Amino acid sequence: MENELTQQQVNFFEQNGHLTLEAMTTPEELEWLRRIYDSLLSKRVGWEQGHQFDLAGTDDEDQPKLPQILGPSRYIPELKDTLYRANAKAIAYQLLGPNVQDQIGEHMIYKPSQIGVSTPWHQDQAYHNPTQFFRNINFWLSLDDATVDSGCLQFVPGSHKLDVLPHHSINHDPRIHGLEVDEPECWVDQAVACPVPAGGATLHASYILHYAGPNVTDQPRRAYTLVFRMPPTPRDIPIDNYWERQKQTARAERSESG
Ligand code: NI
Questions:
Q1: Count of structural domains within the chain
Q2: Does the chain have fewer CB atoms within 10 Å around its N or its C terminus?
Q3: Would you say 253 and 174 are in contact if contact means Cβ atoms under 8 Å apart?
Q4: Structure pTM?
Q5: How far is the centre of ligand 1, averaged over its atoms, from the C-alpha of 99 (Å)?
Q6: Could you tell me the distance, in angstroms and rounded to a whole number, from the CA of residue 210 to the centre of ligand 1?
Q7: CA distances, 20 to each of 58, 64, 87, 157, 181 (Å)
Q8: Quick check: helix, strand or coil at residue 51?
Q9: Is residue 253 part of a domain?
Q10: CA of 140 to the centre of ligand 1 (A)
Q11: Are 116 and 57 in contact, with CB atoms under 8 Å apart?
Q12: 111: domain CATH number?
């Protein structure tokens, strides 16, 4: 199990902005996580509160294309005590230093077999506060063998050194939560696909461009991410994130009325 990186892995991460680790937890914990994961999704836990929603749709379809749950440990506190979390934390400290914040970002992203659509090219920071500069590390634990065909992550190496690029809502529909970078076709040729076995994870840095294809296999693609953050610093000039100001999602409406 991995909870300490070699100097070579640290160098690779700093240069490329991503890294693949083969084992972040035990088979027993993985099995437990799968049961929790399936139960939260099938019961639509957090839907009323806007914590569960379709990243790639308008939330008015019976079968979401890319269901996501934000902060699942709100509902299952034991998720805060996993080996996965402890190992990820140790690696985050190694990469970011001792000032890593206690509060961890956390979500589950489910790509159903045959139904799950692509996650378009984007930078995670396009979703975040435009007045601040971030230094985060995102751990993407795969509960299944993630392959190119099931929707493993793909990265543009070195793009974590870019600032936030202009984005738009998926299908240019502000009712959809998910974002896509403008002119995604510019990045496709540089993509590096990062398959990962069940129980392994990919790590990525704040500003890296990434993508995941549709799930065209007969297996689900279940991912559980943890995000470790340094205290953000103010920007001199905020980013003009007009794509977020235009949003009108059903999820936000549920969250405000709940
Ligand atoms: Ni992302």
A1: 1
A2: C
A3: no
A4: 0.93
A5: 23
A6: 6
A7: 32, 28, 14, 13, 24
A8: coil
A9: yes
A10: 9
A11: no
A12: 2.60.120.620
